[in-house]
Amino acid sequence: MHNIVLFGPPGAGKGTQSQKLIAKYNLVHLSTGDLLRAQIAEGTELGLQAKKLMDEGLLVPDEVVIGMIGNALQRNTQAAGFIFDGFPRTVAQAESLDQLLAQHGTGVACMIALEVGEEELVTRLLERGKTSGRPDDQDETKIRRRVTVYNTETAQVAGYYAAQHKFHALNGIGEIDDIFQQICTLIDQHKAAQPEAPAEATQEVKA
Ligand code: AMP
Question: Would you say residue 197 lies in a domain?
Answer without folding.
Answer: no
